[in-house]
Specification:
Structural class: mainly alpha
Order of helices and strands: HHHHHHHHHHHHH
Helix content: over 70%
CATH superfamily of one domain: Methyl-accepting chemotaxis protein
Number of helices: 13
CATH class of one domain: Mainly Alpha
Distance between the termini: 16 Å
CATH architecture of one domain: Orthogonal Bundle
Radius of gyration: 74 Å
Number of strands: 0
CATH topology of one domain: Helix Hairpins
Strand content: under 5%
Length: 695
């Protein structure tokens, strides 16, 4: 048995590709078989059509012979003799067709007898025709037997040649016209010809029956003509839905159908005219003209049959050509489907061989690089470990300094709190002084109001002075009146002496009043001057006191505002001190965490050093794996690594613990707990089951 374990990957891939050819060959076989069966099916239809065409021509010519033989006209009798020669030629052609297609279409005596059609064989038909010619009288029964057997032979050819099972609508309806409707029309036209010459009888019932039979046959002929037209139209409309439109069929068949219908309608009109005459009571009889019309109609039927047979044969030929083309297309496509992957696989194998070679070389290079990197990682881990130790000591010193700063900031916070309380008390005193100054301003306003009242008194004194002046005027006028009265009393003499005394007394009183008024005026002037002096002095001092009070109030307001500002700043300092104290506490916590992290880094550095040892061992295993892959791809296997001095070493048991520590560190950093895949040394060998599975 051939060993494939030492085969190269390229050879294995090519072998698989060649094995892929087997299902392709099976696919070609079944596709070709299917298309061949379809072609054979259509070819058998052609065989049946060729066989049927000869039988239909025989059926047509024997029918015409039957019509001519009943005529007494020498011309028609001569045509009957000519037909006999033509019928003999058709029988010879039938012999040739039977020899070619008879076995295929089951026209053997055994098959015909099994189907009860033994009288429809070619030999039997020829015998019946010869017997018919030898008879001089009573040929009707012989003709009828021959016609029945010819129709049976046509039906047998149709059944055994798959024509009745035609799969396409266009050819199916054309087949119905060629193998069904047209042979049936020959029979109907022969029957119509016989009904055109009814038997003479005096029985009215018999006459009526003859007319009914003629009308029935005429109607059957007309219905069949309509059916043929519908089938041909269906063929034309369905032609484009299958294997493309046949231009000849589409262009010529409609005109041929029109000519055929015109010829057949002539016979139908002739039969209906005879039918009307019979209904009207006229005696109808068949003449030579009727014979010629019937024969011409049969001739047009034969022409139309040949035309439709040709159209049907073209439809079948197109289908066969399509199947043959599809067969070759399937064959070419299948070969193409196999050939392209085969070429691609050859190209891929070459590329993969080159790629695998370079990949193995790179893998070995990477293994060496990994070994060097593991050494550098060990050195770096040592440096990181010592640096972590120094960093831990520095963090401890920094933590102590932060503790001292925290205590100093706490004292600053207490002093700021005391200053804030003192500023609050000073602000309260300033507010009280501001209230006193407001009261002083109110008192100055009251003094100013008193000055206003003194001004009112001065105004009253002025009014009294005005009134005193008025009294002085009255005194002056009184003295003048007293003097005038004395003058008038002196003039009166004795009579005016008493009036003079009164006038003198009035003058004295007026003089006394004047002196008193003058004294009052002098007092009022002195009082007015003193009041004005006091009022002016008081007003000046009130104005000075008000200005001083307003200045003092402004100063107290500024002091109060500054004290509030100082209080706010002291509060801000106190708040900042508290925040600094909180920040120092957070920094202290962070320093503790950094100290813990430094310790963890130190531990991780030690673990990394251990992992670097493992990486060095696994890089050696990677080199061995690369050599195993090279043997797998290129068809040879190396039992030893390229560098025997770098063979894999056993991993110490302590490395399991360090590896678990490294996994825990990775989980802590990444925040995950998924296990890290690990390759055991025993799992990485040249006899790995996965490699054997590939081979």
């Amino acid at each position: 048995m051939m060993k494939t374990s030492n085969w190269s990957f390229s050879r294995k891939l090519l072998t698989v590709n060649l094995a892929y050819l087997l299902p392709c060959a099976l696919l070609i076989f079944f596709l070709t078989k299917e298309k061949n069966s379809q072609i054979e099916f259509s070819a058998k239809e052609v065989y049946g059509l060729e066989y049927s065409k000869v039988l239909v021509r025989l059926f047509m010519q024997t029918t015409q012979h039957r019509i001519f033989s009943e005529s007494q006209s020498p011309e028609l009798t001569a045509r009957a003799k000519t037909l006999e020669t033509s019928i003999e030629r058709e029988f010879k052609e039938l012999d040739a067709v039977d020899q070619t297609y008879g076995d295929t279409l089951l026209f053997t005596d055994t098959e015909l007898n099994n189907r009860g059609r033994g009288t429809a064989s070619v030999k039997s038909l020829k015998t019946q025709w010869q017997d018919l010619l030898q008879k001089r009288d009573s040929r009707d029964e012989a003709y009828a037997k021959l016609f029945v057997n010819l129709q049976t032979a046509i039906a047998h050819a149709t059944d055994t040649s798959n024509l009745i099972l035609d799969p396409d609508l266009d050819s199916y309806y054309m087949m119905d016209v060629v193998t069904g409707s047209l042979p049936k029309m020959i029979e109907i036209e022969r029957d119509l010809f016989e009904k055109m010459s009814p038997k003479t009888s005096d029985d009215e019932k018999a006459k009526t029956l003859s007319v009914i039979e003629l009308a029935t046959v005429t109607k059957n002929l007309n219905d069949l003509l309509i059916r043929i037209g519908g089938s041909v139209q269906t063929t034309l409309s369905e032609d484009k839905g299958f294997y493309g439109t046949l231009s000849r069929v589409q262009n010529e068949v409609p005109g041929q159908l029109k000519q055929f219908e015109s010829a057949q309608n002539r016979l139908v009109r002739l039969a209906r005219d005879m039918e009307l005459k019979a209904i009207e009571g006229e005696v109808i009889s068949r003449s030579d003209a009727h014979v010629l019309v019937t024969v011409d109609t049969l001739d047009s039927l034969q022409i139309f049959y040949d035309q439709m047979s040709q159209a049907l044969e073209e439809l079948i030929d197109v289908r066969m050509a399509q199947h043959a083309q599809e067969r070759w297309q399937a064959l070419v496509l299948t070969l193409f489907v196999w050939l392209i992957p085969a070429l691609l696989s050859v190209w891929t194998v070459k590329r993969l061989g080159s790629s695998f070679g370079s990949a193995v070389a790179r893998l070995l290079s990477q293994a060496e690089s990994a070994h060097q990197s593991s050494s550098q990682l060990a050195q770096a881990s040592s440096v990181v470990s010592s640096g972590s130790t120094e960093q831990a000591a520095a963090l401890q010193e920094t933590g102590a300094s932060m503790s001292e700063m925290a205590s100093m900031i706490a004292r600053t916070t207490d002093q700021a709190s005391n200053s804030q309380q003192l500023a609050s008390r000073v602000a309260q005193k300033a507010q009280e002084g501001e209230g006193v100054m407001e009261k002083l301003v109110i008192s100055m306003d009251s003094i100013q109001q008193a000055n206003s009242q003194l001004q009112n008194i001065s105004n009253i004194i002025n009014e009294i002075s005005a009134k005193t002046n008025m009294i002085n005027d009255i005194v002056g006028k009184t003295q003048l009146l007293s003097f005038n009265a004395s003058i008038e009393a002196a003039r009166a003499g004795q009579h005016g002496r008493g009036f003079a005394v009164v006038a003198e007394e009035v003058g004295n009183l007026a003089q006394t009043s004047g002196k008193a008024a003058k004294g009052i005026r002098d007092l009022i002037d002195d009082s007015q001057k003193q009041v004005a002096h006091i009022l002016q002095l008081t007003l000046d001092r009130v104005q000075d006191g008000k200005k001083v009070t307003e200045q003092a109030q402004t100063i107290f307001n500024g002091i109060t505002s500054d004290i509030h500002l100082i209080s706010d700043q002291v509060e801000s300092v106190s708040e900042a001190a508290r925040e600094q104290q909180f920040g120092i506490e957070q920094i202290s916590k962070a320093m503790l965490q950094m100290d813990q992290t430094t310790r963890s880094n130190n531990s991780a550095a030690q673990t990394a050093a251990q992992l670097s040892d493992q990486l060095s061992g696994q890089s050696r295993k990677l080199s061995f794996i690369a050599q195993s892959i090279s043997g797998l791809v290129f068809g040879h296997r190396s039992a030893q690594p390229l560098d025997s001095g770098n063979s894999p070493k056993e991993v110490p048991a302590t490395q399991d613990h360090s590896e678990s520590d490294s996994r825990a560190l990775v989980d802590k950093i990444t925040g995950t707990s998924s296990p890290v895949a690990r390759i055991e040394p025993s799992q990485v060998t040249a006899d790995d089951p996965s490699f054997k599975k590939v081979s």
